[in-house]
Amino acid sequence: MSDPGGIQAIEKEIVEEFSLFDSWDDKYEYIIDLGKKLPPLEEEFKKDENKVRGCQSTVWLVADYNNGRVFYKAESDAVIVKGLISMLIRVLSGHTPDEIINAKLDFIREIGMTTHLAQTRSNGLLAMVKQMKNFALAYKLKNTAKI
Amino acid sequence: MITGSAIQAGIDVVAIRKQFPILDREVKGKPLVYLDNAATSQKPQVVIDALVEYYTRYNANIHRGIHTLAEEATAAFEATRDRVKEFIGASSREEIIFTRGTTEGINLVAYTWGRQHIKEGDELIISGMEHHSNIVPWQVLCEEKKAVLRVIPVNDQGELLMDEYRKLLSDRTKLVSIVHASNSLGTINPVTEIIDAAHSVGALAMVDGAQSSVHLDIDVQQMDCDFFAFSAHKLYGPTGAGVLYGKKALLESMPVFQGGGEMIKEVSFDKTSFNDLPYKYEAGTPNIADVIAFKAALDFVDQIGREDIRRHEEELLQYATTKLEQVPGLKIIGRAKEKVSLVSFIIEKVHPQDLGILLDNRGIAVRTGHHCTQPLMDRFCIPGTTRASFAVYNTKEEVDELVKGLEKAIKILI
């Protein structure tokens, strides 16, 4: 962890927070709490083109590029998904496209949420991760093109 | 966990549960409460044994082999056909076509009879509560033939508007294809009435029996449907096997579906003559093992007795409906007078997916989402529901677990 504030450091923080919970109920209560606290997405962004495909619930995801870093905002109509989004935003938002593209996101497995990665059709965590990385890749390519 | 009332509605649920090894397992450290039976049922030991027995003792390709294994496999495979004929009251074994499942049965009719008979301007009627598998094949057909697909509307209780149906019928109507029991609402549709009305304008009638074959006594002759499709896997049988029933004269007159081995009489490069029913529609090596094991499932059902199963499930439905209605904010979607044993519901301010995840966390398996009936969900202006669907091995205690699980989930979610 040579990079304080880097993606891996934040992932480690989350894993440590989750190590405090000894039951699944507690883990989910925490994720639901995160979901409830996720700031709502402005209505103007809640349109079809911002929907993440592959989710049973509706997820809207938008990205912004500022000073070489990608910033995400997202919302869902399902609160557990919102909690998962909140964690992904915490980990990935504010980093460079390369950092985001290369992020391994091992924390998802380490906190025991891999089932949500597998269930692509039901809640689409994988679809969200893919979409977030796609945004990063798009900004990277756009940048390279400018140079 | 399942102790108390062993005997419910005349059947010994404890003894029945013992026949389903999967019901012993735990999920997330809790005993499994399996309430997703409308998606697929669990399998009794006799079905699992039949599969193992086939692969262990007499696996062989059927119909043409001269050796002992082929003869045994053929006999077992064809025994299922006789058993299915009896189970649904068909008049002849030649009317029983083995398919991969309900979806393939419907597609078979759409691709053969449909392509032969449907012409520009013809009309097909389905209902507003169809599964996508009884919508899309007809849509594709209508698009290809420039025919029109008409839809019988559904009322707020989740019942078909029969007067509207009669208004849709005309001499342009060529086929009415209707779900017998809705997988999302549980509604049992008055198929006999629907079929009679279709016949009165000269149209054929197809019934999607995926759900009804599990819960109701099926008599295709009494129903007088022209086609009836269902799946083994919802009926305690294996996945990947199903049945299309069709009236013999119709099946005989229809063109072939898939070409290949088994379905031919003679092949030369100039001309191929096709096999007789039912083999005409069973091209290639069929799903031998699963078809054979399906017989064990049907025997299992009839050993308990369909009437007793129906009464047990009816009791569970009533119990679940009463209990669920008491959950604050819960609204049952589908209040038809006649229902199979499933309850679909929504809870105010709670997304079904969140419920599904939290219930799973307590070992409770339900289905959340649109249940492959998106147009129906649109009708009720909801993105989806949570659905608990019951089978012969479910108990009132499991309904109580569901209700407890819901109450706990709601507390966390709201």
Q: And the CATH topology of chain A?
A: Sufe protein. Chain: A
Uncertain segments of chain A = none
**Residue fraction in strands of chain A:** 5-15%
CATH architecture annotation of the largest domain in chain B: 3-Layer(aba) Sandwich
Summarize the topology:
The complex is a heterodimer of chains A (147) and B (414).
Chain A: H1 7-19, H2 24-37, E1 59-66, E2 69-76, H3 79-92, H4 97-102, H5 107-110, H6 114-118, H7 125-146
Antiparallel strand pairs in A: 1-2
Helix pairs in contact in A: 1-3, 2-3, 3-7
Chain B: E1 7-8, E2 11-12, H1 13-18, E3 26-27, E4 30-31, E5 33-34, H2 45-58, H3 68-88, E6 96-99, H4 102-117, E7 123-127, H5 136-145, E8 148-152, H6 162-168, E9 173-179, H7 191-200, E10 204-208, H8 212-215, H9 220-223, E11 227-231, E12 242-246, H10 248-253, E13 264-267, E14 272-274, H11 288-304, H12 306-325, E15 330-333, E16 342-347, H13 352-360, E17 364-365, E18 367-369, H14 374-379, E19 385-389, H15 396-413
Parallel strand pairs in B: 5-17, 7-8, 7-9, 9-10, 10-11
Antiparallel strand pairs in B: 1-2, 3-4, 6-12, 11-12, 13-14, 15-16, 16-19, 18-19
Short description:
By secondary structure, chain A is mainly alpha-helical.
Notes on the protein architecture:
The complex is a heterodimer of chains A (147) and B (414). Chain A has helices at residues 7-19, 24-37, 79-92, 97-102, 107-110, 114-118, 125-146, and strands spanning 59-66, 69-76. Chain A is mainly α and 147 residues long. Chain A has one domain (7-146): Alpha-Beta Complex (Sufe protein. Chain: A), CATH 3.90.1010.10. Chain A has a two-stranded antiparallel sheet with strand order 1-2. In chain A, strand 1 and strand 2 (69-76) form a beta hairpin. Chain A is globular. Chain B has 414 residues and is α/β, with parallel strands linked by helices. Chain B has helices at residues 13-18, 45-58, 68-88, 102-117, 136-145, 162-168, 191-200, 212-215, 220-223, 248-253, 288-304, 306-325, 352-360, 374-379, 396-413, and strands spanning 7-8, 11-12, 26-27, 30-31, 33-34, 96-99, 123-127, 148-152, 173-179, 204-208, 227-231, 242-246, 264-267, 272-274, 330-333, 342-347, 364-365, 367-369, 385-389. In chain B, a hairpin with a 4-residue loop joins strand 13 (264-267) and strand 14 (272-274). Chain B is globular and about 70 Å long.
